[in-house]
Design goal:
Elements lengths: L18 E5 L3 E5 L2 H12 L3 E6 L4 E4 L5 E4 L3 E5 L7 E6 L1 H6 L1 H18 L2 E6 H4 L2 H10 L8 H11 L6 E2 H8 L3 H16 L3 E3 L10 E5 L4
Parallel strand pairs: 7-8
Antiparallel strand pairs: 1-2, 3-6, 4-5, 6-7, 9-11, 10-11
Helix pairs in contact: 7-8
Length: 221
């Protein structure tokens, strides 16, 4: 698949909310706010997402005074499946959308029109949609990103996980897999790491804990 490339670089200044997010350790994606950063984090964790392009296209629209203006949506999200249309995304604080909707709706209309033309879907993602329990759980899981597991141990864990009847709790699996409390605590961190690798899928609609439900285990073939 041929991807769009950024049409604009985010300018650097002293705003602490601007920066770069290390997306899957492969590329740095710029963000202009903490809510944009959190959006990228959500996309990073989604195994269906193939790539996120910042500032992907420049559009023009006529503002309320009749003047032509330029508009650059924040991100273009590509998915691994060709059956899922890319998302052209605008990320905003909900309060900002409510406050300036009269002006923003003209930008959004341009976004919707371009997305339809390109065969994409235009999405407005606000902080209330992005930030929530799922994001909190992802943040907790990312604390275990450095807890790498050897290939041999990874295979052993996945083989054992494949024998459980899902859905099942993390606690139920570990109680059957470990012999003592120390092994239990060591292996729970490995479960979180395996989740980051998308080897297992957890129910992240509830707070991350030993009671978290294992929904699916990746085939170890």
């Amino acid at each position: 698949m041929k991807y769009q490339t950024p049409v604009r670089k985010i300018p650097t200044n002293r705003r602490s909310s601007r920066g770069y997010y290390a997306f899957r350790g492969q590329e740095s994606i710029p963000h202009e706010s903490t809510v944009e950063r959190d959006f990228i984090m959500q996309m990073e964790f989604d195994a269906n997402v193939a790539k996120v392009v910042s500032q992907p296209i420049e559009l023009s629209y006529i503002d309320m005074s009749g003047r032509r203006q330029r508009y650059t949506p924040d991100y273009l999200v590509y998915f691994r499946s060709s059956n899922v249309k890319p998302w052209l995304v605008e990320v905003k604080e909900r309060d900002e959308i409510k406050k300036d909707f009269g002006k923003l709706r003209l930008k959004f209309a341009a976004g919707f029109a371009e997305a339809k033309k390109q065969g994409w879907i235009f999405k407005i993602c606000d902080d209330m949609r992005i930030r929530g329990l799922r994001l909190e759980n992802i943040r907790k899981l990312k604390n275990f990103s450095s807890h790498s597991v050897s290939a041999e141990l990874r295979e052993k864990l996945l083989t054992s996980l494949a024998t459980i009847n899902t859905p099942s709790t993390v606690q139920a699996f570990l109680e059957s897999y470990t012999n003592n409390r120390n092994d239990y605590l060591t292996n729970i961190s490995r479960i979180w790491w395996l989740t980051l690798q998308h080897d297992i899928e957890l129910d992240l609609s509830t707070p991350l804990s030993e009671k978290t439900i294992i929904l699916k285990v990746k085939s170890n073939d």
